[in-house]
Specification:
The chain is of the alpha/beta class and 154 residues long. The chain has one domain: Rossmann fold. The protein contains six helices and seven strands. A five-stranded parallel β-sheet has the order 4-3-5-6-7, sandwiched between helices. It has a two-stranded antiparallel ribbon with strand order 1-2. Helix 5 links the parallel strand 6 and strand 7. Helix 3 packs parallel to helix 4. The two termini are 18 Å apart.
Length: 154
């Protein structure tokens, strides 16, 4: 059974579909088209983050509010930049991607989190259990990235 929750997020009305007991899923795409989706990229490979940003910028209205190369920096930026969307990998230095997601979900139930990883299916299931909204198995296409981001924002 699903319920709908409406909130105001940075001046936007946001409606979310919630599964009982799970975190809300972030701003809706219809609201995101009115103003850019504030996006934080956390990836130990800066080139991958640059490519992800480019692909998303070509497909939708986003604003990159920060980039981090490790989990500790990512956690700090996630709490100071107030993103709508976080794209992260699991294998980060200092704070793992799984621990990063768990820490974020303790205080932020609104931000949409997409995990892009070359990790095993077990790691992906752990990421979802920790609070990620979606996982992408690396390598993935630009269409898969954009489609996944749109799904978690809707």
């Amino acid at each position: 059974m699903k319920s709908v929750e409406s909130k105001r997020l940075r001046g936007r009305n946001v409606s979310k579909t919630l599964k009982p007991g799970l975190a809300s899923k972030g701003p809706s795409m219809s609201d995101a088209t009115k103003s850019p989706v504030r996006t934080l990229l956390i990836n130990c490979n800066p080139d991958r983050a640059t490519i992800q940003a480019y692909l998303l910028e070509q497909a939708m209205s986003i604003e990159i509010v920060g980039r981090a190369v490790d989990g500790r920096q990512g956690l700090r930026l996630a709490t100071t930049t107030d993103p709508d969307l976080i794209i992260t990998c699991i294998q980060l230095m200092f704070v793992s991607g799984l621990d990063l997601i768990r820490e974020l979900r303790k205080t932020n139930q609104v931000v949409a989190i997409v995990v892009a990883t070359a990790g095993s299916l077990t790691m992906q299931y752990e990421a979802l259990a920790a609070g990620a909204n979606a996982c992408l198995q690396d390598p993935f296409t630009s269409e898969q990235l954009v489609s996944t981001v749109r799904k978690v924002l809707n």
